[in-house]
Amino acid sequence: MLKKIEAKYHMTKNPVTFKADTEIFDAISVMLEKKISGATVLNEKKEVVGVISEFDCLKAILSGSYYEHAGGTVGEFMTAEVEVVDKEMDILKVAERLIKGKRRRLPIVEDGKFVGQYSIRSILNAVKDFNKK
C-alpha cells in the first residue's frame, strides 16, 4: 500500500524555521502559537545547521533556572547533528528513519539547500489521503 505513495508529494514545503541567533523565548512563543513541536534551524544561505525541539527548549528553561540566567539563542540549545534526506526518498524509508531516529521531522535538502521537511504528521496524512481513494 505505502509503496504507491510518493513521499515528495507529502512534504511540508514552507515549514516554520529559525535562525541560530533567534532568542530561545521567541522560538518557544512561535512554536506554541503554531502548535508545532520543533523546527529546522537555517543559516543565511538556507543551509541546515540544526533543529530545535520542545525537548531542547525545555532543557534551555531548566538550564536557566539552575544557573539563574534564563534565555539565550536557538543556536545554544539546538541539536546540531541533523540527519537530512532527499525529497525523492521512498515514503517507507522516511517512516523508518523517523522511527529509528526517534524524530518527529527530517529536513529535506536539495543541492545543499533546505527545501522542506517530512514529518510524522505528513506521513500520517499521506496514509489518510491514500485510504480515501
Count of DSSP-assigned helices: 5
**CATH architecture assignment name:** Roll
Termini Cα gap: 12 Å
CATH topology: CBS-domain
Query: In one word, what is the shape?
Result: globular
Counting DSSP E segments of at least 2 residues, the number of strands comes to 5
What is the average of the pLDDT values?
A: 88
Cα gyration radius (Å): 16 Å
So, the CATH homologous superfamily?
Answer: CBS-domain
Helix fraction, binned, reads: 25-40%
In the predicted model, the low-confidence regions spanning at least 5 consecutive residues are: none
Tally of separate domains: 1
Key descriptive features of the protein:
20% strand; two-stranded antiparallel sheet; 3-stranded mixed sheet; 5 helices; alpha+beta; single chain; CBS-domain
Structural notes for this entry:
The chain is α+β, with helices and mostly antiparallel strands. The protein has a single domain (2-132), classed as CBS-domain (Roll), CATH 3.10.580. Helix content is 39%, strand content 20%. The chain is built from five helices and five strands; from the N terminus they run βαββαααββα. β4 (105-110) and β5 (113-119) form a beta hairpin. It starts with 16 loop residues before the first strand and ends with a helix.
